[in-house]
Each structure stands twice: as structure tokens, then as C-alpha cells.
Write a structure and sequence with these properties.
Blueprint lengths: L33 H11 L1 H14 L6 H16 L6 H11 L1 H28 L4 H28 L4 H14 L1 H20 L7 H27 L5
Helix pairs in contact: 2-3, 2-9, 3-4, 3-5, 3-6, 3-9, 5-6, 5-7, 6-7, 6-9, 8-9
């Protein structure tokens, strides 16, 4: 079931006025979606995204807290996307602390599957076994699939009261139900990563300063669309 949408955190700011209304009583403008909305969110929240990125990097330095940090980032990015008042430190810490059990259990489950698929890829590629190249290709597909599943896990953790088993099950279902959008979001995230690494050393600071926030923004936006369509509405929220 989706969590109560009432938000009681201290209000830091409103990111920007809703694009559905306009001044002087003129006809409301069409709501922006997709890449146009993401670009506008980055424009109006650039400094906040940089701050969030740095908080995330510090929060996941002890590697064991990576899923908790991803939950905290997902919470803040969700509020940015919904254009709701937010306080970065408060909302990040609240999700980090309150959701650590579900985030860790679900997150490390997916991370473990990704690690196993990567290890199998290396083994098949270097093992010299018959059909090793084909099996290595299957492992690459599994890595991409598990990463896609993980992109839904943390938004589900912070936006629903589902147990760990149901979070994982719904993440698997959402990947299939929103396959084209999931693929597009992964490709956009890959493009951001390529920009961060393709022009090194000039772009060395992009990832630690804002790269993670940009990738997270893309993934959380896609996940929220799916959660609203298939999870929240199914529960009658």
C-alpha cells in the first residue's frame, strides 16, 4: 500500500511553480513530461542536486550503507519531481534511517544478483568452455535486467509499505510492464555515465558532484510513473 502522502518535514523551498498554471488567468499550459520535465527540474534545482549528490557520496562511503543512501536519494528526488516542499538533509536522513531494513534487504539482494551475473560473465569469458561467449552474453543481459529491477526497488521502498518480498516482486513486474520506458531510462543513464567518463580528465568531477543525482533523477522519475500507474492505483490510493 502506498504511504500517506502527507509530508511533515521542514519546508526548505518550492522548486518552481507548477507548469499547469499560468499568470493573468490565461489558459493553463500543458504539463511537461519526460525529458523536457527532467531538464526543467535540473534547471531549477541544479544546486540542490549537487548538494544531494555530495550527501549521497558521503553516505555510501561505508559500502554497507549503499542501499540506505539510495533510499534517501530516492526520497528527495521523488519530492523534487512532485514539486513538493523538501529539506534535503531532513528528508534524506529520514528515509536513510527509517527504511534501512527494507532498503538493505531488498537492495543487497539485487546487488548480489548483479555481482553473481558479473562473476559468471568473467568466468565464462575466460574459462574457455564451449559456448562460453554465448553464456557470457546471457550474463550481460542478466546484469542489465537486474540493474533495471534495482531502479524500481528504492522508489518502491520509500513510496510504499510493501514488504521486501513484495518490493522485489513488484520491481520485477514493473520492468516487464514498462519495458520500453525502462530501456529508455537505462540508455539515458548510460549516456550520462559516458559523458562522465568519455572526456576524462576534464569531466572527472561530474560524477562525484552531480552525476549520481542526474542518473537517480532519471530512474526515480521512470519508477514513479510506474508506481503511480500500476502500484498506487491498484491499491486504490
Amino acid at each position: 500500500m502506498r504511504k500517506d502522502e502527507a509530508h511533515g518535514s521542514p519546508s526548505e523551498h518550492e522548486p518552481f511553480p507548477s507548469s499547469q498554471s499560468s499568470e493573468n488567468g490565461s489558459r493553463p499550459r500543458k504539463e511537461k513530461r519526460g525529458v523536457r520535465l527532467l531538464a526543467e527540474l535540473v534547471r531549477f534545482n541544479f544546486g540542490k542536486l549537487v548538494l544531494l549528490n555530495m550527501i549521497f557520496v558521503v553516505a555510501c562511503l561505508p559500502l554497507v550503507t549503499l542501499p540506505c543512501a539510495l533510499a534517501g536519494m530516492s526520497r528527495v528526488l521523488g519530492l523534487i519531481i512532485e514539486r513538493r516542499p523538501f529539506f534535503i538533509f531532513y528528508d534524506f536522513r529520514t528515509a536513510f534511517v527509517s527504511e534501512w531494513k527494507r532498503a538493505s534487504a531488498a537492495g543487497w539482494s539485487v546487488i548480489g544478483l548483479v555481482a553473481l551475473a558479473v562473476a559468471a560473465y568473467v568466468m565464462y569469458l575466460r574459462g574457455g568452455v564451449p559456448g562460453g561467449s554465448l553464456l557470457a552474453g546471457v550474463c550481460v543481459i542478466l546484469v542489465v535486467f537486474f540493474v533495471a529491477v534495482g531502479s524500481y526497488v528504492f522508489p518502491l521502498v520509500v513510496r510504499t509499505d510493501l514488504g521486501v518480498k513484495d518490493v522485489l516482486k513488484n520491481s520485477l513486474l514493473l520492468v516487464q510492464l514498462r519495458l520500453p520506458y525502462t530501456v529508455l531510462s537505462l540508455l539515458l543513464s548510460l549516456a550520462i555515465l559516458l559523458v562522465c567518463f568519455a572526456f576524462l580528465p576534464f569531466t572527472a568531477l561530474l560524477l562525484p558532484l552531480i552525476g549520481f543525482s542526474l542518473i537517480g533523477l532519471v530512474q526515480v522519475y521512470n519508477a514513479m510513473e510506474g508506481i503511480t500507474q500500476y502500484v498506487a492505483r491498484k491499491e486504490g490510493e
